[in-house]
Every structure is written in C-alpha cells, then in structure tokens.
C-alpha cells in the first residue's frame, strides 16, 4: 500500500497519548486499522513539562497502534493545544500578474503570502494560514479563485500561531520517540475532520473540545474555520475540585468523577452516598451524591460559560445554524448536553468520529476524536506539511525504541 494511503494521528494530551492509524479504503472511505493509548505524565495544559515521560508515552501508544494495524509508522500528524495558542484573521491584496488576467496558482500563493506578512513576536511561530474566502474585483464569497479572471485578487485568512518553545518541544518529543512530524496541527482543526459533516461546517457550528488540561473552542461557517481559541481550563479542574471538596486523593477523585459525576445535580432525595477515601491515613467516610453534584455542576457551569463567552465575543455568535458539538473525555459526563443547551441556548450534541470503517467501534468515543481526526486530516493531505525529517525515523529514535524494549 502506498504511504499516501495510510495516515497516523497523534494526540498528546494531558491525561493520555492516543495514536490512530487509518488507511484509504474502498470508494475512498477511510478505515481505522490501529489504535493505541498510553497514560500521559509529561504534559500539563498542552505544554511538555517532562520530555522523557512524554517520549515514553508516545512510543507506547504508537507501538500499540502499529501492532494492531500490522504496519510500521514513520511519521504522523501531531495535534497541538494549550493556552499559548493565538489566532487572528488577516487580509491580503495583490494585482493579478498574467496579461490575460487569469488567476494562477502563483497568484493564489502570492496573495496568501501577502495576508500572512504580519508582524508576530520573535518567540512565536505560524502553525496555519487558512484561506476563508477570496475576493475577485470586489466579488466576495469565492472559495476557489484558481482559473477565474480578474484584475485585483484579495483573500481573507485565519492565522494560527503558537509559542515557538512549546511547538518545538512537542516536535522534539515525537522525534526522540523515533518518528517524524508531518505537520503540527491545531487540535480543533484535526478534530473537525472526524466529528463535523459538511452541513455543519457550512451552516455554522461551534466545536468545544474539553480536554483534561485545556478547552479548545473553534467556530466553522461557510465551509471553513472562522475563529479558534484555547481556555486554560478542562476536566482536570473538575477532578481537583472533587479532591479538595471531598478531601480525597487526586487518584480517587478521578475515579469518583468517572463513576459518579454529573454535570447537572439531580434532586437530593433521589441521591445515594459515596464512600470516599481519606487523605493522609484519615478514615474513609461517606458523602452524599448531592454534595458531589454541587461541586461538579459549579465547575462545569463555569467552564461552559467561559466557552460561551468566547463564542459571544466573535461576529459568528448568532450564525451557528447547527449549534454546538462537544468532544473530549469530559463530554461523556452525564447531563453535560442538557447543561450546555441551557448555557449556550443552542442545540448541543456529543461529537464522536463518524463516516469511517474498519475498527470504528474502537474509536466511537469523544476521547478518540482528536487522534482519529488528526489521522483523517493527514489522509486528506493536510495543509502545509513542512517539518524537517518528514517521513523518517532518526537513528537516535531507533536506538531509544530498541533500548526501551529492554530497560
């Protein structure tokens, strides 16, 4: 099978690292052929805080996916998030160069270059320059300008930047694990490939990915991304609140969150009780589910309200014709759809990877939306694969993987 018919997505999250391998199936329907996950201990809010732990988690996740798929991966599309991400819209204008005024690929490249010729701080780098629409001689709303005739060509683009150090540390983690980075991809952009359909992108949708350390917000309208931002708040904050509120270890708080947490507190009379482990050798005790519900609902309401406020600041708040899509592990929490509908005053659904074949049951879960979406994004060709070492494992990476098998 040709390399272009296989794509790997790598989601390096705060809670887990997830690798998904997809291949191009019959009639171009993508098929999931490999999935691997590993606990993540080296990331915090989208930032690498322990390189060695991140490298080991990447190796474990990718090797699981390779074993399941029966293929060896050389390079992958890697997601990036964190509150260091910044985005803005920009506009470029040029005169069409050919005497017959036909717009060529060179003209399209020139106008996009003009749009991205903006001053950004030295400590930041551009991740994506995504055309939103072209304008030819004042006629706007053009999605593909190539081949058209005109004198003046303009473009509106969405530019996404990241802190250079954060981006380079993610790349370094993958390369030290022995893999190449095809492209660093903004997480919501990758997720959208898995959970949004063409109608949602066209009519308007807000994508809210609630990860462990951060919450990513993106707006799609008229077929392209219009806004993106990252909030430094996620499911891990709910765990911390439970640990503090119930005075229990973080590990037990996470178990309680998974087993009992609800985004909407129900009637206390219908509630039972939960056995909670004490801290520092203190006795276990029983607390009511109503008490847990109060803690969880307060934090989830704050998180969703912040996402709603972020969307309200844009020009597209009233143009989300299809509503809101929630993804990420926290989207599995009972009652989250009802709470989100109350806050956003829009229809809400939980986004899971769709329109795929193969081992689809292994990824039909919002926790796998990022890894699957990144792989699908790569299968579609990405937008600007440009990293050095693309498609190759370094000798150091091979040695690290070999050593890891024995030590």
Indicate the multimeric state: single chain
Helix coverage percent: 25-40%
Strand content is 25-35%
- Count of runs of 4 or more consecutive helical residues: 11
The end-to-end distance, rounded to whole angstroms, is 34 Å
Radius of gyration from CA coordinates: 22 Å
**Mean pLDDT value:** 88
Named CATH architecture of the domain at 198-352: 2-Layer Sandwich
Shape: globular
CATH fourth-tier homologous superfamily of the domain at 198-352: ATPase, nucleotide binding domain
Number of β-strand runs: 19
Which residue ranges are poorly predicted, with pLDDT under 50 across at least 5 consecutive positions? 383-407
Question: What is the fold named in CATH at topology level of the domain at 198-352?
Answer: Nucleotidyltransferase, domain 5
**According to CATH, what is the class of the domain at 198-352?**
Alpha Beta
Overall structural class, as computed from helix and strand content, comes to: alpha/beta
Strand order of the largest sheet: 11-6-1-2-3-19
**Sheet with most strands:** 6 strands, mixed
Element-by-element helix/strand order: EEEEEHEEHEEEHEHHEEEHHEEHEHEEHH
Plain-language structure description:
The chain has 407 residues and is an alpha/beta fold. Among the domains are: 86-161, Dna Ligase, domain 1, CATH 3.30.1490; 198-352, ATPase, nucleotide binding domain (Nucleotidyltransferase, domain 5, 2-Layer Sandwich), CATH 3.30.420. The chain has helices at 51-69, 105-115, 164-176, 187-195, 198-203, 235-246, 250-260, 289-312, 336-344, 369-379, 395-404; strands at residues 6-12, 16-24, 30-39, 43-44, 47-48, 75-80, 86-95, 124-136, 139-142, 152-163, 180-186, 205-210, 215-221, 224-231, 273-276, 285-288, 324-327, 348-350, 357-358. The chain has a 6-stranded mixed sheet. The protein has a 5-stranded mixed sheet with strand order 14-13-12-17-18, sandwiched between helices. Strands 7-10-8-9 form a 4-stranded antiparallel sheet. Strand 4 and strand 5 (47-48) form a beta hairpin. Helix 6 packs across helix 7 (250-260) and helix 6 (235-246) packs antiparallel against helix 8. The radius of gyration is 22 Å and the shape is globular. It starts with 5 loop residues before the first strand and ends with a helix. The model is unreliable at 383-407 (pLDDT under 50).
């Amino acid at each position: 099978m040709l390399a272009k018919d296989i794509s790997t997505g790598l989601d390096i999250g705060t809670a887990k690292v997830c690798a998904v391998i997809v291949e191009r199936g019959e009639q171009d329907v993508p098929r999931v052929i490999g999935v691997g996950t590993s606990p993540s201990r080296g990331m915090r809010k989208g930032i690498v805080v322990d390189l060695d732990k991140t490298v080991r988690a990447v190796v474990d996740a990718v090797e699981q996916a390779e074993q399941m798929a029966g293929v060896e991966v050389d390079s992958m599309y890697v997601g990036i998030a964190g509150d260091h991400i910044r985005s803005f819209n920009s506009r470029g204008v040029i005169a069409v160069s050919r005497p017959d005024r036909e717009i060529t690929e060179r003209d399209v490249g020139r106008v996009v270059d003009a749009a991205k010729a903006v001053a950004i701080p030295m400590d930041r780098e551009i991740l994506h320059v995504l055309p939103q629409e072209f304008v030819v001689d004042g006629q706007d709303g053009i999605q593909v300008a190539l081949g058209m005739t005109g004198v003046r060509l303009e473009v509106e683009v969405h530019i996404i930047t990241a802190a250079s150090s954060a981006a380079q540390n993610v790349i370094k983690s993958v390369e030290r694990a022995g893999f190449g980075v095809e492209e660093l991809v903004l997480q919501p952009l990758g997720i959208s490939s898995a959970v949004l359909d063409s109608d949602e992108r066209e009519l308007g949708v807000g994508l809210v990915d609630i990860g462990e350390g951060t919450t990513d917000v993106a707006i799609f309208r008229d077929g392209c991304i219009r806004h993106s931002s990252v909030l430094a708040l996620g499911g891990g904050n709910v765990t911390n609140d439970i640990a503090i509120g119930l005075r229990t270890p973080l590990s037990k708080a996470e178990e309680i969150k998974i087993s009992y947490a609800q985004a909407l507190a129900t009637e206390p009379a219908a509630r039972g009780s939960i056995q909670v482990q004490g801290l520092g050798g203190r006795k276990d005790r029983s607390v009511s589910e109503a008490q847990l519900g109060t803690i969880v609902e307060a934090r989830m309401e704050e998180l969703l309200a912040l996402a709603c406020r972020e969307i309200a600041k844009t020009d597209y708040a009233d143009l989300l014709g299809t509503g809101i899509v929630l993804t990420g592990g926290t989207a599995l929490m009972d009652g989250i759809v009802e709470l989100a509908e109350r806050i956003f005053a829009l229809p809400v659904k939980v986004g899971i990877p769709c329109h795929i074949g193969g081992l689809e049951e292994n990824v039909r879960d919002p926790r796998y939306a990022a890894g699957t979406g990144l792989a699908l994004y790569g299968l579609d060709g990405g937008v600007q694969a440009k990293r050095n070492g693309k498609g190759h494992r370094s000798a150091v990476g091979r040695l690290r993987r070999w050593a890891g098998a024995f030590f």
